[in-house]
Each structure stands twice: as C-alpha cells, then as structure tokens.
Amino acid sequence: MGLSVDVFAARSDNFGYLAHDEETGRTAAIDAPEAGPIRAALARRGWGLTDIFITHHHADHVEAIGELKAAFGARVTGPAAEAGKIDGLDELVHDGDRVGLGRTTLEVIATPGHTLGHVVYYDAAGGHLFSADALFSLGAGRMFEGAPGPMWEGLKRLRALPDDTLVYCGHEYTLANARFALSIDPDNAALQARAAEAEALRKEGRFTIPFRLGEDKRANPFLRADAPELAAHYGLDGTDPAAVFAAIRKGKDDF
C-alpha cells in the first residue's frame, strides 16, 4: 500500500501527475495544467479524480481546475497566499499544513520565489516530492515574483529532505538545465553523469522524471549555491550564498 504516481505529458512541456492512494482509491491531480491528458490518464488507470492539489497560480498549472471540478466533483486545495489568484479553491493551506489523500498525508512546504505563494507537497512516508516550478531536475524555477534570499531558503528546505526522495517537477527542462549547469560547473562528475543520463533518456523518448533528490543535491547548481567552486566562478568567494544563488539565477536567465 502507499502512493502510486502516474506521470504523463501535458501542454507543450508540462508534466501531469496523478497521485493515487492505493488503500482507499482516492486520487489527486497535482496541479491542473490540461484537462484532456488528465482525463486520459484517469481512464487508462481506471481511477476517479477526488482531489486537485495546486502549487501556484500560473495558468499552465491551474487552467483545467474548472473543467475537472465540474466533471468529477474534485476537492481543490491550494496555497492560501495565492487564493485571490486561483479560482475554485475549496481548501486553503499554509506552510507546515498537512493534507490527506486517503491514508496518505502530504506536508505543505512554502517555496517562495517562482511565485510568492508557491508551495510543494511532500509525502514523507512514501518519499515523493511534488515540486512543481520550485525545483526542477538540475534547475529551479525562474524567479518571477520573489527575491533570492527567500527562494534560496526554500530550496535549502527541500535539499534537507532525504536523498532517496523521488522528485516530480512541473516541466521537462532537464537537458536545457544541464547545458547551463555544465557551463558554470564543468568539472562536476555527478553533473556530467546526470547530463549524459538525461541525454540518453530523451533520445529514447523517455521522461527524465522522477529523479532522486540525492543525485540532484550533488549536480544541481541551484542546490549548491553555498559550494565554494560556484562562488569562485562568479567571483563571489566568501559571499552570502544567497548572493551566489542570485548570480546563478541571473546567469540561467541570460543563458
């Protein structure tokens, strides 16, 4: 028993996820990027949609809420800090709250930066982290609304989770993230291995998701802003890691 996760493509480069509590049959869509692929995944699995867990207000994560809620009567949970920007929320959650999906409990973790109210959902018992646009494979979300300090602090909270955690992020950006990461951290063997693995997976038409958090801790520059070699790359030796994080973020934006 526990949580089963179905992974599928949505929109142009979004991932869609169904999280299914095996004991009770309750099933949540993690975000609502596009109704068609979510409906197709439900039909393929023979599951009914009971819940929708929203991470942030961007259209490519909430667009299908209305259609899915009308079709399935699903209960919609989302960040209280963005309640005014997301239509159809039934339950508002804050940092540290826990939400139930049958016998499964997911912790809500605030990860401000991509948007100010962005949250992720963490299944500690099963080792699943639904990180949306806060943390990507070898990358992190563009900082549209937040500031480097709080975004770095949020990512450090995710970095502190167990190495064997499986991470399910919002988009298939791994190859582009790998190219940038190698440009600033070219001697990182763990990064080189991840980049090669991602290249092979994509050539086979396979997803690079989920990925193990422990592997990302060693390879993702956005999780390594306190590494001396990255500070040195930007000429910021001895500087607050938040400043190094800001430099990495700007570097990726301009890459």
Automatic annotation (TrEMBL):
Cofactor(s) named in the record: Zn(2+)
CDD domains, sorted: hydroxyacylglutathione_hydrolase_MBL-fold (cd07723)
NCBIfam families in alphabetical order: GSH_gloB
Binding residue positions for Zn(2+) 2: D60, H61, D133, H171
Stated family: Belongs to the metallo-beta-lactamase superfamily. Glyoxalase II family.
Metabolic or biological pathway, per its Swiss-Prot or TrEMBL entry: Secondary metabolite metabolism; methylglyoxal degradation; (R)-lactate from methylglyoxal: step 2/2
EC number: 3.1.2.6
Organism: Devosia honganensis
The entry's keywords: Hydrolase, Metal-binding, Zinc
Catalytic activity of the protein: an S-(2-hydroxyacyl)glutathione + H2O = a 2-hydroxy carboxylate + glutathione + H(+)
Entry note: cofactor: Binds 2 Zn(2+) ions per subunit.
Subunit structure, as described in the record: Monomer.
Function (record text): Thiolesterase that catalyzes the hydrolysis of S-D-lactoyl-glutathione to form glutathione and D-lactic acid.
Residues where Zn(2+) 1 binds: H56, H58, H114, D133
Gene Ontology molecular function, alphabetical: hydroxyacylglutathione hydrolase activity
Domain Metallo-beta-lactamase: 13-171
One Pfam family matching this protein: Lactamase_B
Protein name per UniProt: Hydroxyacylglutathione hydrolase
Entry-linked HAMAP family: Glyoxalase_2
